[in-house]
């Protein structure tokens, strides 16, 4: 066994304490399996929080990374580059969008979107039209603007004053939106499925109503698809199944298959407000990230891969139902595709992390979405046998917690 000079204690010694990672340290991954420093094997249902859409160390992503690494890594945006142009072209081919802005993360993609909606409104209506409507329990990233637009007050604690002009409404409440939106509203921002907020899908009528209200008040509709995008729901982007087309869409996480990359997609008309010098990103659109992302989306945007995402969802549901027939601790299973949230019954509310820790002990990597919801966002190509093995580990974890 390899001897390591760093371990979990090292984290406490040298890292800022904004995270509380588990005791084990993963050192190697292949497909939907991960091995830690001690050589212990885990099934990965977390996917790096919906990032590793093709699992760990996919051979074609490795090939794309190696090939580009021998050509060109970084230029700055004083120049453009072929991988960025090819990736932007592919994204506009796949989606509603006509223009693309590249960055490095979902937070940055949202920051760009929130700046753009205000700039677009300023250009077309003046400074009074600056109000952004968002929704409670939403999550849009960790920059100051992003946590302000996000609907979870805990992420803003200690950072006041935060940017003004943001209103939060109950999610899926069309009447509240009707009562609040006005000609001073520059944008409505929403996740088609709230991820961090508990894996809560938007109602179809809510989305259609939001689109109509935005059109009526000349406001932009922004979809945060950082977590739902790039095949996660069984569509390449979740909006494609809603009958509603946004004006701006943000995407990251699965976009790079594990390599840091983000993008904001929009229309020709809206993009004009980001004229020369209005926004930027030093690393955004770098050749290395774009080459990997192009390979990732070409692998994911495949009819069979996307169809398999939906069939694997049903396998997860069936296994969860089987576990629940024995233990009766799941109140509801939510989500689409391979973004799955399992709400615990009231008796177990606040204890999601206990199940997370027990799962890790049983060789399963999983997530939570708040204190009451277990979350799973595995590789989109996770083998069915890995799902079954992971669910067997989850059943052992549930038994351990319930019988403790």
TrEMBL record:
- EC number(s) per entry: 2.6.1.11
Cofactor note from UniProt? Answer: Binds 1 pyridoxal phosphate per subunit.
Record-linked CDD domains: OAT_like
- In-chain residues carrying the UniProt-annotated modification N6-(pyridoxal phosphate)lysine: 253
Q: Which reaction does it catalyse?
A: N(2)-acetyl-L-ornithine + 2-oxoglutarate = N-acetyl-L-glutamate 5-semialdehyde + L-glutamate
Query: What sort of enzyme, by top EC class, is this?
Result: transferase
Q: Which GO terms describe its biological process?
A: L-arginine biosynthetic process
Q: Which GO terms describe its molecular function?
A: identical protein binding; N2-acetyl-L-ornithine:2-oxoglutarate 5-aminotransferase activity; pyridoxal phosphate binding
Organism domain of life: Bacteria
- Name the pathway it acts in: Amino-acid biosynthesis; L-arginine biosynthesis; N(2)-acetyl-L-ornithine from L-glutamate: step 4/4
Name of the protein this chain belongs to: Acetylornithine aminotransferase
Please give the organism.
Endozoicomonas numazuensis
The gene is argD
